[in-house]
Structure to design on (119 residues):
């Protein structure tokens, strides 16, 4: 298992930017992919984006494509979510998650960090 700790959430105005970080510890040698998800009040958790841990593959939800960028620093076992042009509908608790193998699901989760976008 890996332990994940998110940071960087906060309050921002519409059109602003935030960068979230997610640091992994524990069995990091098993990391296959890292992802970001979010959950708004009263809504289901939704996929935001993901990145492979050793390759160049990334993917994003249509709702954030072109505004959000995922990057990683393998040496620091950290993945980032750069969020630009934030909108009130981006308000949610953001979670990072890890897959520990090609056949694994995202079953290692952080505690989440709140992002609030004010209009």
């Amino acid at each position: 298992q890996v332990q994940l700790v998110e940071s960087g959430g906060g309050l921002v105005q519409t059109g602003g930017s935030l960068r979230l970080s997610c640091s992994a510890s524990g069995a990091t040698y098993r990391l296959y992919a890292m992802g970001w998800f979010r959950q708004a009040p009263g809504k289901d958790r939704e996929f935001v984006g993901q990145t492979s841990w050793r390759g160049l593959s990334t993917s994003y939800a249509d709702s954030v494509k072109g505004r959000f960028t995922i990057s990683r620093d393998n040496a620091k076992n950290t993945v980032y979510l750069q969020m630009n042009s934030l909108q009130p509908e981006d308000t949610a608790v953001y979670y990072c998650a890890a897959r520990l193998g090609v056949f694994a699901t995202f079953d290692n989760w952080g505690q989440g960090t709140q992002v609030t976008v004010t209009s």
